[in-house]
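Bumping my old thread because nobody answered last time. Still need a sequence for this structure:
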């Protein structure tokens, strides 16, 4: 008899004993089982260990093996996962992402003003396919990639940033969200504060909280983050980390003004803090050049720059880059080796192919024109259909409009009515790290199929709001 069959035999015998006995009653001793069934002590020990792992028995050293308390049986076909509530104790649940559609699926004729990705007819599908095909033909396409990323891709990212940044200052990442998670875990210890704009990107709030950090809001105005309040926040909290989006801020579309750009970096440097510059929208301008990245003028390693190809390319083009100087880069490389070793080489090779062709520049020019037109269409339609909704600004870049609702109309009620009229929107409260200042909605103009759909969405929203009655005030 093999060892495995002997163990199975003893397990079957003990199961029969367990069925006969009640909870807390003692099973035959190991010595009795060995003598009665002619098996070795190792076989008996492994059989009891298997039953203990299943929760069928409890072993008490020096006393014996006892039948475990019976678990209540769930209804037939219904698994019982209630035990996980105990196993997961001590970890706060993470909030749902606001750009992920929740609840019942929308009908086919629904118009999506939620989410943060380009509609497929705005994506460079053909250049992406051609780049991936060329990358796959490379003889080393499936070789292991360096931990920091392919040198050619790092050079491309460094050139895009400018300001004396070299490939040695660049770490290729799997998109922007994973890079944020890595940064928060690498730079700040759990339990520490992180300063964020208010409102801000909710994916950053989720990543910070998952890393055990406590987001602290710093208000913004029409010129971006306020340096005076930022200095106060550093002084009050002792924070050593600031997360901000200086260019085409999500959700408001604000661009940090030229005079404030140097001030914000100086305040962070004086506090001995890192500044994470999330530059996700650099390639989402509406025709005007984007301001120079903060990191390009930073010589002391205060700014850690984050960029990504996902937003201007495709949701599945999960390639981004971190730019950092000093010991923090070694820390980030260490996190890379712990998390995932390296980014898949075929995708990096495809990114090199894509960024090295004229097709990418043509795509960005066409995208800028399309986004500018869509933005104007939605803004004009909202002004016409919902004149009491306040548009923060018509942005010069990005994918969204940020609107304040009139008093008396709550976000939840408007969103529910919008869904009933086949329009998906993002609730504003999820963009605030603390209490919202008022009711807001974020409306995207890049996920709908055609610009005409945006005007129709505004008309449907107006009809939906009329079902709620007049706003107070």
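Sorry it took so long. Here it is:
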């Amino acid at each position: 008899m093999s060892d495995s069959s002997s163990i199975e035999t003893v397990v079957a015998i003990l199961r029969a004993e367990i069925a006969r006995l009640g909870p807390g009653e003692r099973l035959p001793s190991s010595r009795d089982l060995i003598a009665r069934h002619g098996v070795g002590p190792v076989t008996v020990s492994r059989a009891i260990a298997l039953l203990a792992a299943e929760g069928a028995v409890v072993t008490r050293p020096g006393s014996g093996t006892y039948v475990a308390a019976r678990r209540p049986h769930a209804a037939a076909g219904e698994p019982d996962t209630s035990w996980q509530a105990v196993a997961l104790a001590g970890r706060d649940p993470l909030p749902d992402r606001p750009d992920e559609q929740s609840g019942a699926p929308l009908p086919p004729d629904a118009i999506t003003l939620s989410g943060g990705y380009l509609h497929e007819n705005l994506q460079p599908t053909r250049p992406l396919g051609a780049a991936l095909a060329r990358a796959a033909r490379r003889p080393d396409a499936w070789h292991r990639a360096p931990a920091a990323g392919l040198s050619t891709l790092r050079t491309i990212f460094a050139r895009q940033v400018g300001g004396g940044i070299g490939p040695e200052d660049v770490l290729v990442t799997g998109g922007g969200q994973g890079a944020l998670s890595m940064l928060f875990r690498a730079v700040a210890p759990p339990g520490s504060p992180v300063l964020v704009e208010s409102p801000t990107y909710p994916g950053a709030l989720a990543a910070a909280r998952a890393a055990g950090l406590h987001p602290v809001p710093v208000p913004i105005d029409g010129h971006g983050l306020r340096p005076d309040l930022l200095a106060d926040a550093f002084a009050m909290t002792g924070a050593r980390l600031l997360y901000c989006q200086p260019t085409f801020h999500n959700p408001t579309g604000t661009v940090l003004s030229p005079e404030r750009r140097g001030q914000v970096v100086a305040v962070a440097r004086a506090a001995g803090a890192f500044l994470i510059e999330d530059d996700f929208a650099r390639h989402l301008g509406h025709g005007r050049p984007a301001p120079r990245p903060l990191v390009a003028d930073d010589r002391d390693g205060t700014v850690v720059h984050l960029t990504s190809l996902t937003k201007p390319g495709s949701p599945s083009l999960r390639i981004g880059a971190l730019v950092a100087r000093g010991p923090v880069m070694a820390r980030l490389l260490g996190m890379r080796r712990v998390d995932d070793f390296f980014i898949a080489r075929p995708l990096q090779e495809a990114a090199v192919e894509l960024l090295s062709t004229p097709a990418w520049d043509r795509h960005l020019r066409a995208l800028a024109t399309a986004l500018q037109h869509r933005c104007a269409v939605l803004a004009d339609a909202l002004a016409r259909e919902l004149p009491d909704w306040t548009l923060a600004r018509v942005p010069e870049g990005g994918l969204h409009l940020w609107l304040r609702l009139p008093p008396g109309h709550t976000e939840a009620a408007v969103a529910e009515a919008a869904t009933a009229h086949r329009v998906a929107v993002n609730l504003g409260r999820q963009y605030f790290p603390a209490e919202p200042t008022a009711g807001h909605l974020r409306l995207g103009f890049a996920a709908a199929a055609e610009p005409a759909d945006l005007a129709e969405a505004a008309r449907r929203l107006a009809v939906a709001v009329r079902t709620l009655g007049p706003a107070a005030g």
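The first strand starts at residue 57 and ends at 60. Let me know if any region looks off to you.
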